[in-house]
Amino acid sequence: MNIKVLDTTLRDGEQTPGVSLTPLEKLRIASKLEEIGIDFIEAGSAITSEGERESIKEITKQGFNAEILSFSRPLNVDIDYCLECDVDAVNLVVPTSDLHISDKLNTTRDKLIDLSNDAIDYCKDHGLIVEISAEDASRSDVDFLREVFLNAIDHKADRLCVCDTVGILTPDSSYDLFSRLNNLNAPLSVHCHNDFGLAVANTLSAVKAGASEIHTTVNGIGERAGNTSFEECIVSIDRLLPEFSTNVQIGEIYDISKLVARSTGVYIQPNKAIVGENAFAHESGIHSDGIIKNSATYEPITPELVGRKRKFILGKHMGTHGLDSRLKELGMNVNKDQLNQICNDIKDLADKGKTVTDVDLQAIADNVLQINHEDRIRLDEVTIVSGNKVMPTASVKITIDNEEILNAGVGVGPVDAAINALKSLDMFKDIALIEYHVDAITGGTDAFIDVIIKLQQGDKVVSARGTEPDIINASVKAYIAGVNRLLRD
Question: Which family does it belong to (predicted)?
Answer without folding.
Answer: Belongs to the alpha-IPM synthase/homocitrate synthase family.
